Amino acid sequence: MRLSDLSRSTSQIRYMSVATERADKVQQQLATNRRIQRASDDPAGAAMAMQYRKNITFEAQMRRNLENGTAFLNVTESAMDSATDLLQRARELTVQGATGTLGPNEKKNIVSELNQIIQQLGQVANTNFGGAYIFSGHQTQTPAYNVTGNPPVSATWQGDSGQRIRQISAQASVAVNVIGDDVFGTMFDDLIALRDNLNANAPTTTINSALADIDHALDRVLNARADVGARINRFEATTNRSLDADTNLQELRASVEDIDITDTIIQFTAAQNALEAALGAIGRTSNMTLLNFLR
Amino acid sequence: MGLSVGLDTAVKALRAHQLAVDVASHNIANAQTPGFSRQRVLLRPIGLDGSDHFSRDNLLGRAGYGVDAKDVNRIRDTFLDFQARQGMSSRGQYQAFSAPLSNAEVVFNDPSDDGMSSLLGKFWSAWHDVVNEPESLPARTALIHASTTFTTRVKAAYDQISQQRLDLNQTVSSIGAQINSRATEIAGLNLQIKQVELNGDMANDLRDRRDLILDELSTLGNISYAEDDTGSMSVYLGTHELVFGTSARTVNTVDDLANPGMVKLQFAIDNDDVNVSNGQLKGILDARDVALPALLDKVNNFATGIMNSVNSLHQTGFGLNGSTGLAFFTGTDASNMALNSVIAGSPQSIATGAAANQPGDPSIALAIANLQQSTNMLAGLGANNLTVNEALSAGNVASGITLGTGLQPGMYHLVANGPNVELHYGSAAGPLIGTATLADINPPGGTISFMNGANTVASISMTVSGAYTAATQLADLTTAGNNTLQVEASASTYYGNIVSVLGADVNRAKGLEDSSGLLVDHLDTLRQSVSGVNIDEEVTNLNASQHAYNAAAKVITVIDEMLDTLINRTGVG
What we know:
The structure holds 2 protein chains of 2 kinds. By secondary structure, chain A is mainly α. Chain A is built from 7 helices and 6 strands. Chain A has helices at residues 5-32, 43-97, 104-125, 180-184, 187-199, 204-257, 261-285; strands spanning 128-129, 132-133, 145-148, 154-157, 165-167, 173-175. In chain A, strands 1-2 form a two-stranded antiparallel sheet. In chain A, strands 3-4 form a two-stranded antiparallel sheet. In chain A, strand 1 and strand 2 form a beta hairpin. In chain A, helix 1 packs antiparallel against helix 7 and helix 5 (187-199) runs antiparallel to helix 6 (204-257). Chain B is an alpha+beta fold. Chain B has 4 domains: 3-75 and 533-569, no CATH class; 80-115 and 159-289, no CATH class; 135-157 and 299-380, no CATH class; 382-488, no CATH class. Chain B has helices spanning 3-29, 59-63, 78-108, 116-132, 137-198, 204-220, 279-314, 341-345, 363-369, 470-477, 491-531, 535-569; strands spanning 39-41, 44-45, 67-68, 72-74, 223-227, 233-237, 240-244, 247-248, 251-255, 263-267, 329-330, 338-339, 390-393, 396-403, 410-417, 420-425, 432-437, 445-452, 455-463, 484-487. In chain B, helix 3 runs antiparallel to helix 11 and helix 7 packs antiparallel against helix 9. Chain B is elongated, with a radius of gyration of 39 Å.
């Protein structure tokens, strides 16, 4: 075909720009490590990548929820541990108080320690975590118990049975709180009555009967603690499952969205060679004219 | 009759080759001029014909009277012009169409770490954080930020796409101005060409200029043209006359009353709309009036779906300060979607609990956070659907509707076409998705399947009490109220669909742009192969003319010597 000078220079410019464009595209992929820069690069792949990204974000939020819930459960667990220790001490004091051979000073000491235990149990029941009273149900801005008097004369339940829910997976939402009233029940009233009975030199049998109340309170705390422990385990298992899902999703996302480094570097080398070849060919042929051969 | 004739012949030859050198020089000068057609001197021997005052037995007469070099022709193939201009119209159309779509794609910036889908994800995450600590002001404030960022982005996307439309609208006016200036120039050139050619001269360069303007005009819209025997070119834009002889019809930019805020082009002479099927104007109008509005509708659906779903839950809840009945978002669609200013000013007003004075109750917040997983976010659009277990007539019940997984979310319309029912996307006039060939269904029931080729895209299971004829089915399914189906999706799926469908559109538009560009390049190379200047060729011609010129000069010397012999030497001795 007859070629004019104008179409030769136009096509040379076109060859250069095609070769440059190809090299540039691959270079951009290498620089960003991404095969899909825009949805139009691969619409079907982009839809999949967005779905994976959405699921990755969702799983990350679930782990955030789990972490937050685990912290809440851990605080609850340690409160249960303190309550257990305090109740066991109260039980020892009760056994001592029931021996009947106590002097007035010894009895006074027992009573004073019991008062402290009641105060401390009040503090445990009113544990505050992140600005919320953890045993108050939904009444998180109100202490679970209003312990009045020093020495304490009454402890009034102020919470409700509201659940604090965490979404821990797409399917499951789990309450992280235990309700103060369920755990402590009549514990405060029982301990205050026991102290009053000790003060009033009540008969040994009366004091002894308080042991059953304390055991009952211990049972309830231990049950709640076991329940919290089980939930902590479940949260840990769910976190691990979410981490597995995350690894899986990240791999899927990368397989759709990211470049295959080896493959792309080969492509880049090829594009670079093509560009060099195009430039070389243009450089050689553009000097070729009949004028070079005329006198 | 004598030696002077030979001198005359040689002088003609000198003139002819001088002209050939001039033409080669003109060609070389314009080797890189766009639209220039190479020119050639048409050399013709002056023979015996037309020279009857010389006797036929005259030896000189038999040799001829030299060369005639009056005409300088341009070398051009008008059929290639025609093909190239058609290609240019297509390229103009696809270029103009793909650019705004490609810009719209950037607006969404997905998939990426900071695209709109990531902001949507952060919005839902912020709700989960509030669920975790409903009494926490920092968590609530973070939700306010996440919500504001999200609504700002949705509104920005809407505004940027709307701005694209306005920019395209501006371009329509500017195309009107370009059409006018080109039409006027062609009319002017028609006059000049006519005048030059009436004198018997060739208006080569004027014709080149006119052809170049026709190229430009064909990029703007589809044109047709015809040259009359005076050399005037009549031009039609679409089907309407644009240039007639030496007069140009102008187009006006007027407000399009049927398309608020937008303009259209009208021929000044008769107020007919400028109607083109190709070219930049067509591409721009397709983007401005079809593609971008459809995209805006989708963004609106997305925004409205989220607003309605979140608001309807939020209004049932209570804030830390006892507030209730508050809409979380205000606005009616993406253009004015915003966080309720009451909430923006008071994080306590975010409704998290199901009752007043329950600061630790996250149940409403949890329900809102879980909307993320909801697959019917768009249910709030108030569609009038054919639903599952819908009684149609006489105990016939559509007991189940199955939609193919590949169907994009949105409304589908059932439209009668002869004895068949068609499923169209978007509206009754939207794209055809599948066709059901109806047949009588007998108790207990059967299935109506919508097919696209061999694939079932949707199906409706029927439970029937008696023979349910094809005719009754047709009537039932296309009755208002039963003639729409809605494919619902979660907000993120719907959004993902917006982005991937747009991506596919951009991809296709760019593909068409590239292929039409290649075609134009190819046709242009062909045109250039006929009309373009090749310098090597011109230099060769230049050399040839130079030789011929030198030879003609030699002829004069020879004749001069002959005359000298005749005058000074003959009969002297």
